[in-house]
Amino acid sequence: METETVNFSGKIQNQQYSYLQNKQAISFGRTESIPDEFISSAPKPKKNKWLLWASVGIAAVTATIIGIRHFSPLKQIERRFKKLYDDIPGTQKKFKEIFMRENLTEEETINMLKRYEKIEKDELKQSKEEYWQAVFEEAKANYKFEDFDIKMVLDKELSDKSAGEWCRKTKSVKIKPSIDKKYGFGTIHHELRHAKQDEILKYCSEDDFIRLYGEKIYESLKKRGFNTVKNKSLEDFIKETFYGSDSYSKEMRESIKSSFKTITGLDEYMTPAELAKVPKEKIELSKRFLKDMECPDIENDFTAYWKNAREIDARHIEDTINEMITGLNTKNRERHFNIK
Ligand SMILES: [Zn+2]
Known about the structure:
Elements: E1 2-8, E2 12-19, E3 26-29, H1 49-71, H2 73-86, H3 88-99, H4 106-123, H5 128-143, E4 151-154, E5 164-167, E6 172-175, H6 181-199, H7 206-223, H8 234-242, H9 247-264, H10 272-275, H11 280-291, H12 302-306, H13 309-326
Parallel strand pairs: 4-6
Antiparallel strand pairs: 1-2, 2-3, 5-6
Helix pairs in contact: 2-4, 3-13, 4-5, 5-6, 6-13, 7-8, 7-9
The chain binds zinc ion.
The site of zinc ion has 4 residues, from helix 6 and helix 13.
């Protein structure tokens, strides 16, 4: 709630206006120095009647102008960004997390903010498509993809349950054209985060990759009651299956490598020397996402899909960037999907 004192040429003194948080509502709190003209029991000199109405008119117009200035979409954007500019270290920390940019500088943070502010202001006079294109270009640049050349496609055919989709095969972000214009902002960042998740899968050493897949194979054989794993520990199974000197181990290693190729698009694993230069957090994230690689089909098992590590991560990023830039609260969206 905000109050402001306005003077009208000595006629109405200390008139207080309180602006409700509610966007347009402006209420008049006439609590101080109420002029006689405003009290119904007081004698109203006829000759001053026009002055009364003129004052009311001026007051209403002024209040509306002040109200518009306070609650116009432009002012709201400026207020939201002021908070971000006022706390650059906090903003920088969030951008670092969102875009996986551990070396992001303060200067880059400020420039990023300036560009996002421009995008949000331009949005007020742009079509949905123009706005989304600008958001996509900005987000893509901020994620700094090294290997992927990603495109955005508007796709009417997307499932009812998705606002967007990341297609690994065609390296494209698909967005449902019917979703809300502002909701699209977070969706674009969400889908590009999935692309980033894929891009960092390469930060997994050959041993880690073999272990993750070995674990999956071991669990699946156990579930199906295979004798080969009956009285065998996971360690022994991995050692025998992938690290033996026979041709079987060699074959198994080749087949695991082709999975790595399909997922990352790379022919070779990264060497230990190359991996030593990669921040630990990225390597940890890469392992976490690989573990949850097979994301269940949205239509068949939506709850499992919702709880997948990759989904949880992308939703968290979407919520964070929305809270910062658009002010949209997307945190409770599972209510719409009946998640248990
Ligand atoms: Zn997702």
